[in-house]
Design brief:
The chain is mainly alpha-helical. Helices cover about 75% and strands about 0% of the residues.
Length: about 200
């Protein structure tokens, strides 16, 4: 009896070749998961439940540190063997959730850029439309108006995009559903730039 037959029980009507094909297919899936673990962005690993196996967590950390080489490939195969010994479904589910969340982040970034560009191009009409779409922004109407005016002046003068970045951060906070305020949106450097306006 092989070590894989413990993980994948033999069905009575399976012959030796069917078992091997099933085991190979499972090994390909687990190897692909090991490859994902070794290459995804660090923040995507935050919710991954590595508490199941400390050896697995250490093997993944080592695989992530290695550069692309034969050593990294061997380490990925080692991670795959360790994944075969645990239930990989929660790990795969956590990675999938992180990747789906990344798509949502990109959509918010694009929407924030669109609103910022519209605010700078249309001015007061766009501010009214934004406040209508996001009523929580009502308290920051004056601040948003200042940022739009200053951003338009910066564009005309060819100045750096600091005010536009501040406007972008303010819009993004409202798109994410947070209660943004003028103090949250400004950095210390941005305060100096706005005082001169």
């Amino acid at each position: 009896m092989s070590e894989y037959e413990d993980v994948f029980p033999v069905k009575p009507d399976e012959n030796r070749y069917t078992r091997k094909a099933r085991r190979d297919a499972q090994h390909e899936v687990v190897t692909a998961l090991a490859e994902r673990l070794a290459t995804v962005r660090d923040e995507w690993l935050i919710g991954v439940p590595f508490d199941v196996d400390a050896e697995l967590a250490e093997a993944v950390r080592l695989a992530r540190r290695l550069k692309r080489s034969g050593a990294k490939n061997r380490q990925i195969r080692h991670v795959a063997r360790l994944l075969m010994q645990v239930d990989e479904a929660p790990i795969k589910a956590a990675l999938d959730r992180a990747e789906l969340g990344h798509g949502d982040d990109v959509d918010v970034l694009h929407a924030s850029e669109g609103w910022r560009d519209r605010l700078l191009a249309e001015g007061p009409e766009a501010i009214e439309a934004f406040i209508e779409a996001f009523p929580a922004a009502e308290g920051d109407r004056q601040h948003m108006r200042q940022l739009v005016r200053q951003g338009a002046r910066d564009i005309a003068a060819g100045k750096p995009a600091r005010t536009r970045r501040t406007l972008y951060r303010l819009v993004k906070r409202f798109l994410l559903g947070g209660e943004a305020s003028a103090e949250d949106a400004l950095d210390a450097d941005d305060d100096d730039d706005l005082e001169g306006a």
